[in-house]
Amino acid sequence: MRVKKAKTTKGDGEKEKKAPPLVLAAAWCIPGAGHWILGKKVRAAVFAAVVVSAFVTGILLQGELGTPKPQNPFSWLATFACFGNGILYLTRMTWLNGVGGFLAGIPFDLQGGGNPSAAGFAYGNTFLYTAGLMNLLTVLDVSDIARGEKS
Q: Domain for residue 13, yes or no?
């Protein structure tokens, strides 16, 4: 079986266009900000509404923000997912731990809030993780738009 080589559209002298790092940082930090900067205002509003509403729903369902725990290696995945929420994650962690506690507790000893005995705890966690991962996907979308790969 022969495998065909993929054709490239870039010539030998062409460089691949890169997305501006500040736009990507804004896209991660504030849901919808990257699309707003690129002039995609409706898309920015929709993505911001989806991510923020999922995050708020997770908090209202008594979900716990992911924090790293030394005895649980999978907690790092939850932390990564929640950290994708950007300023929402940082604000909530500061609210729960205080500024001094937040800075002193990195990366361990942070409180993620939530109530494990609440009926919606597991669903709240899922909403928080999903909100962060959706926001990270919007960063990838912003990168594609900024590089001209997508309109």
A: no
Average pLDDT on 38-66 reads: 96
Q: Rounded to two decimals, what is the model's pTM?
A: 0.85
Q: Tell me how far the alpha carbon of residue 23 is from its chain's centroid.
A: 14
pLDDT tens for each residue of 63-75: 999 999 889 999 9
Flag whether 73 is in a domain.
Answer: yes
State which residues form the domain around 105: 21-146
CA nearest neighbour of 50 among 138, 140, 124? 138
